[in-house]
Amino acid sequence: MGKLKYIHLIFMTGTVGLIVFSLSRWRPSTNGIKPVWSQVPQSGRKTVLLWTRYFHNIHWPLPNRNDEKCKFSCRVTSNRKYLAHSDVVAFHWRDIDLNDVPKSRKPGQIWAIFSLEPPPQTPREILVSLKDHLNWTISYRRDSDVFVPYGRVIKRKQKKYVKLANFFENTTSVSWVVSNCKTTGGREDYVKELKKHISVDIFGECGDELCVGKSNAMFRNLCYNHLATKYRFYLSFENSICKDYATEKLYLAMDSGMIPVVFGGADYKNILPSDSYIDALKYSPASLAKHLVDISQDKLVYQKYLKWKENYEVQNRTVKSWICSLCEKLQAVKLTQTYKPNDFLKWWFDDAKCQTWKNGDVIAYHKTTKAKSDASLE
Question: Which residues belong to any copy of the Fucosyltransferase C-terminal domain (predicted)?
Answer without folding.
Answer: 171-340
